[in-house]
């Protein structure tokens, strides 16, 4: 049951919550009152987080934990190990091919990994500072990851070895006509083959590093997956921000979200440098990206969003993040990650937990 506390107990908060018709998330329980911490350090804004705000933050913490897990796998094999990201020891053939895309790929992988860790760690600590329960998914760390040279071999939350990567964000950000928020569903896809199978984005074993074309296809899959993940974050934060009540929580979403977009922009640029190849084992084909020159829906260097219709087709076109519709945004994010194959092998309990967190986030309403 919802316990009115100093942090969550404004009458308008309770009204908003009751209107949602949902039972209170279990996190908002007796422990919250017991663990209440002064909000003086966060007193810049308003009445403090609502139950809905906490639900949104808890969902975001969960997704950031999952992001951290997948990025850590990339960093173990393809990034830079240092005191900030010590796990793993690097896979030289994988790193060498990543470096053909850009000499700084390993640095970017490292930095993206560190950023994700700070995202979930900050959100969880903020939740604790407000007396709310942080998110912990460690009991779901059950998946076997890569056993190739460089992997730490530890158990994982996410699966990077059977991905079905949707690269249609490439065309979505180039379209001058279409916007998923206005019902459009078809966008140019530079690698439609990535949607037609399950492909590794990391070397699963050392056997995956012996054939250069096969390993190149793995590296290219990763390069597109980097963009797929980070464009998702770029949409998720503004989508959920529209239902946040506390100005301070809004500030958190508005401050983390654009870093996802900074990541996305880097990956969007880098993946334009991939080398064309056909995987000799599974036929997955990556195009010569230079061949798209002159085709506005696919051209490699059109990495800044083309203006498109926003809110209404009767308004002038605008260069924007898309989609940003707020309704069902959390559930849509879970669906997209699931469809990617990121959670293949996870338990029913894992999906139940993730769907519950998403449902609570999507039930959040702005305080009136
Ligand atoms: Fe993140
Ligand atoms: Fe991210």
Structural summary, described in words:
The structure is a single chain. By secondary structure, this protein is mainly alpha-helical. It has one domain. Helices cover 44% and strands 1% of the residues. It contains 10 helices and 2 strands, in the order ααααααααββαα. Strands 1-2 form a two-stranded antiparallel ribbon. β1 (277-278) and β2 (285-286) form a beta hairpin. Bound molecules: fe (ii) ion (2 copies).
What is the residue-averaged pLDDT? 89
Count of discrete structural domains: 1
Structural class: mainly alpha
Strand order of the biggest β-sheet? 1-2
Helix amount: 40-55%
Beta-strand percentage?
A: under 5%
Give the quaternary arrangement of the chains. single chain
Number of strands: 2
CA-CA gap between termini = 22 Å
Shape from CA axes? globular
What molecules are bound to this protein? fe (ii) ion
The whole-angstrom Rg is 21 Å
Largest sheet: 2 strands, antiparallel
User: What order do the helices and strands follow?
Assistant: HHHHHHHHEEHH
- Give the low-pLDDT segments: 1-45
Number of helices: 10
């Amino acid at each position: 049951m919802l316990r009115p506390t100093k942090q969550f107990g404004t009458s308008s908060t309770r009204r908003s919550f009751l209107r949602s018709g949902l039972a209170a998330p279990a996190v908002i329980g007796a422990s919250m009152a017991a663990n209440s911490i002064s909000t003086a350090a966060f007193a810049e804004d308003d009445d403090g987080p609502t139950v809905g705000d906490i639900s949104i933050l808890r969902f975001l913490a969960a997704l950031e934990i999952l992001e951290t897990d997948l990025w850590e796998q990339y960093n173990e094999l393809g990034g830079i190990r240092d005191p900030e990201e010590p796990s793993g020891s690097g896979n030289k053939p994988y790193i060498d091919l990543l470096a053909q895309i850009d000499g700084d790929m390993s640095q970017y992988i490292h930095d993206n990994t560190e950023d994700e860790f700070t995202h979930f760690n900050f959100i969880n600590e903020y939740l604790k500072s407000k007396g709310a329960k942080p998110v912990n998914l460690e009991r779901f760390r059950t998946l076997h990851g890569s056993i190739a040279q460089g992997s730490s071999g530890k158990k994982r939350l996410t699966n990077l070895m059977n991905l079905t990567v949707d690269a249609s964000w490439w065309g979505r950000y180039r379209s001058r006509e279409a916007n998923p928020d206005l019902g459009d569903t078809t966008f140019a896809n530079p690698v439609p083959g990535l949607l037609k199978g399950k492909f590794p984005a990391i070397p699963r074993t050392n056997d995956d590093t012996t054939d250069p074309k096969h390993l190149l296809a793995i590296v290219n899959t990763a390069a597109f997956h980097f963009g797929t993940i980070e464009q998702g974050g770029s949409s998720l934060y503004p989508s959920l921000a529209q239902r946040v009540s506390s100005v301070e929580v809004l500030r958190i979403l508005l401050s983390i979200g654009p870093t996802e977009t900074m990541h996305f922009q880097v990956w969007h640029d880098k993946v334009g440098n991939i080398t064309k190849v056909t995987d000799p084992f599974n036929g997955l084909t990556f195009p010569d990206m230079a061949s798209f020159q002159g085709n506005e829906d696919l051209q490699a260097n059109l990495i800044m969003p083309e203006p498109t219709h926003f809110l209404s087709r009767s308004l002038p076109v605008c260069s924007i993040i898309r989609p940003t519709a707020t309704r069902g945004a959390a559930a849509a994010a879970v669906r997209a990650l699931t469809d990617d194959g990121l959670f293949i092998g996870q338990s029913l309990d894992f999906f139940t937990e993730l769907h519950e967190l998403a449902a609570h986030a999507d039930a959040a309403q702005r305080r009136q």
